[in-house]
Every structure is written in structure tokens, then in C-alpha cells.
Specification:
326 residues; Rossmann fold; OB fold (Dihydrolipoamide Acetyltransferase, E2P); 2 domains; five-stranded antiparallel β-sheet; 9 helices; 17 strands; binds adenosine-5'-triphosphate; nucleotide-binding; translocase
Length: 326
């Protein structure tokens, strides 16, 4: 199923929440909607789902205008941030729920429902927990059950609203990887809302960067990181340093800088190390350039030679660098 969103606007009272949104989502693609809180990601997802009506504009599933169809007619698999499992039903009953409540004419036989639910349990790798209740599951397991439940109705589109944000970092990472692999296998057109850049970059085929109700840029993670279209995108994607000397202006990321403790080499600028923080694989060093009031943040691999002999207050030379080679 491909999705075509055309000149879509949404107002809440006077507030223009989505402004002339145009977006094409290809069949089988995993798209991330990424942007700061309040930029309209969830509103757009809810409109695609049919949970909210646009004020103007159209949505097509393949070539069919579904703007006026309700959520059931759209065959949407929807998964929310907060586990929305039924507490009084087992895992298997939760998964089969969507099929069991179908009108009699469309409902598969009891044995087909059971077979399908078991297959979905296998898919989310929880076959051994079929008879547990939600309260007996971890957060990550609950979200996998929620995903299996969303998939039970054979959705044409899967919509995920910050599905992992209530989980701790390690579980999030695992589930992210798992979702990415699963998506690779099933190739179901999916839209994923997140405000976490790392999450979007890691799993999406393409990322839609939103800000205050408009789309700022659409592209693959690489395109967006390598060629941010404007200042908003550049700044949103991470820490930025600005440094000026004479006529020269440098804008660079913390990892785009080389340090040296040796006295002035050509192209290096003098600074003082005012803070040094090991952060796992990298060490963050805050520098105060000699002729500038603005500190600069550098991140270097913690295996960098001479790093361990660098102390707060030491003189250090830095060079912004944009042309790393491998
Ligand atoms: N039902 C509503 N009535 C009025 N305003 C609303 C309604 N739903 C959302 N808004 C407003 O619309 C804007 C966009 O909200 P939305 O939930 O789409 O943003 P978001 O990008 O998903 O944010 P977050 O990451 O915080 O969830 C916000 O300013 C919000 O307050």
C-alpha cells in the first residue's frame, strides 16, 4: 500500500497544527516522523489512521481517496506509546481480540483465529508466554504483544506512535533492532512517530523532519545528516559549534574536530580545556578558544593518544574538520 498525502491542513480552533502537508509514502517503506514536541507528528499520524479529520486536503491509499473513510475501513494497525493491552485477557486472547470481534460474515473460524494468533506470537518471539497475563510481562514484551495484536487484522498500514518511549534505553535499543529486522521481513508500509533522532536514523528508510506544523525535509537518514536543507534541520540533528576567526566562520559538530596537545600546527587554533568528561566510547572535551567567548564542544574517541594526559586547564589546539577519510 502506498500513501499519498496531498495539501493537507489541520486546525484546532484557530491553531494551524498541520500546514500544507504533502507526503508520499512508498509501498513497504518504514517512514519516521521526527520533530520536537508539539510539531504535529501525532496529529498527522492520527489523520492517516482516520482517528482525526483533516480541515482540508486529501489522503490516498494506493489510488483510492480514503479521506472520508473511518478507521475500520482503512484497515490500520495502530500501536501507541502506552501499553494498551487488556489486563483480563491472556497474551493469546489479546492478540486474537481484533479477529474475534469482527462481524460474523468477515470473522475467520475459531481454529483459523487460533492458528493465526499463534503464528503472530511466533513472529514476535513470545510463543512461550501465550497464557500469561499482561501484568506478568516486561515492558518490552508488552509492546511486542501490542505489535502482534496490531498485526492480527492484516493491516494495510502499520502506524506506531512512540511505541518504545516508555521503555528503558537498553530495551528500546533491542526492540528498535528487532522492529527493523521484522519490518525487513514483512515489508509492511509503516509510519513511526518519534522525537528521538537516533531511533529515527537507525530504523527508518526515510525520515520526515517536522517543525511547527510544516515538513522541513524528507530524505534517507544519510541524506538528512549529510545535506541538511536548512538551519532548523542542522541544529535539530545535534550539537553544533560555531567558531569565527577573522573572516573565517566554522560550523561543525562535536565529532568534527581534531585536537592536538602539540604547539601550534598550521590550521589549528589555541584553546584551553575547561571540562573533560568520559562518556563511554567517546570523551567530551569543552574548550574555550583563546580569542572567542564561546566554548566549543569536542568529542574524541576515548582511545585517542595522549588523551589520558590531558587535564582541565591545559592548553590544547583544535582544528574543525569536514573531510574525514577511511
Ligand atoms: N485535540 C486537540 N485540540 C487542540 N489542540 C491540540 C489537539 N491535539 C493536539 N493539539 C495541539 O496541536 C499541536 C501538535 O500536537 P501533536 O500531538 O500532533 O504534536 P507532536 O509533534 O506529536 O508532539 P509530542 O511529541 O509532544 O507528542 C500541539 O500544540 C498540541 O497542543
Amino acid at each position: 500500500m502506498n500513501i499519498h498525502i496531498k495539501e493537507l491542513n489541520k486546525y484546532f480552533n484557530q491553531f494551524h497544527v498541520l500546514q500544507n502537508i504533502n507526503l508520499d509514502i512508498r509501498k513497504g517503506e518504514l517512514i519516521a516522523l521526527l520533530g520536537p514536541s508539539g510539531c504535529g507528528k501525532t496529529s498527522l499520524l492520527r489523520i492517516i489512521a482516520g482517528l482525526e479529520q483533516p480541515s482540508s486536503g486529501q489522503i490516498f491509499f494506493n489510488d483510492q481517496d480514503i479521506s472520508n473513510k473511518d478507521i475500520r475501513e482503512r484497515r490500520i494497525g495502530y500501536m501507541f506509546q502506552h501499553f494498551a493491552l487488556f489486563r483480563h485477557m491472556t497474551v493469546l486472547e489479546n492478540i486474537s481480540f481484533g479477529l474475534r470481534i469482527k462481524p460474523r460474515k468477515e470473522r475467520p473460524s475459531a481454529s483459523d483465529i487460533l492458528a493465526k494468533s499463534k503464528h503472530l506470537l511466533d513472529m514476535v518471539q513470545l510463543s512461550n508466554l501465550a497464557d500469561r497475563y499482561p501484568d506478568e510481562l516486561s515492558g518490552g514484551q508488552k509492546q511486542r504483544v501490542a505489535l502482534a495484536r496490531a498485526m492480527a487484522i492484516d493491516p494495510s498500514v502499520l502506524l506506531l506512535d512512540e511505541p518504545f518511549s516508555a521503555l528503558d534505553t537498553k530495551v528500546r535499543r533491542e526492540l528498535r533492532q528487532w522492529l527493523s529486522n521484522l519490518h525487513h521481513e514483512i515489508q509492511l508500509t509503516s509510519v513511526f512517530v518519534t522525537h528521538d533522532q537516533e531511533e529515527a536514523m537507525e530504523i527508518a528508510d526515510r525520515v520526515v523532519i517536522m517543525n511547527k506544523g510544516v515538513i522541513e525535509q524528507i530524505g534517507s537518514p544519510k541524506e538528512i545528516l549529510d545535506t541538511p536543507k536548512n538551519d532548523f534541520v542542522y541544529h535539530f540533528l545535534g550539537e553544533t559549534n560555531h567558531f569565527s576567526v577573522g573572516e573565517q566562520n566554522f560550523t561543525f559538530r562535536p565529532h568534527e574536530v581534531i585536537l592536538s596537545i602539540h604547539t601550534e600546527k598550521v590550521g589549528y587554533f589555541e584553546a584551553t580545556a575547561i571540562d573533560i568528561r568520559p562518556l563511554g566510547a567517546v570523551t567530551k572535551i569543552v574548550l574555550k578558544p583563546k580569542d572567542s567567548d564561546y566554548p566549543i564542544e569536542a568529542q574524541v574517541p576515548n582511545t585517542t593518544r595522549n588523551l589520558s594526559s590531558l587535564n582541565k586547564g591545559d592548553k590544547v589546539y583544535f582544528r574543525p574538520i569536514m573531510d574525514f577519510e577511511i
